Fold this sequence. Notes:
Layout: H1 2-28, H2 32-57, H3 61-105
Helix pairs in contact: 1-2, 2-3
Amino acid sequence: MEILQTAVDIAFVLVMLGVVFAFVRLIKGPSLPDRVVALDMMTVLIVAFCGLFALASGETAFLDVAIVMALVGFLATVALARFVERRGAQEGETDAQAVADEETQQ
């Protein structure tokens, strides 16, 4: 069992490093899709953290928390993807209107 505890400790460190790097990408950007992917990655890493904590502590309730977090993360990713898609479509319409306005002015 000592090797399992060592593996769980190493996994905790790696998951937390992943969360830190994802947070840096979330803050730094540079674009909105980069931030959405970083947020999704943080959600997956938090789910992994809950699973590791359930393994380390023996509390099965944390597995339920991990399942709920995974579902919420999935729904948030879908909602943000739809937002990015609609925003891109609106910007595309604005660009097309600007080109049409320039052509009529010439």
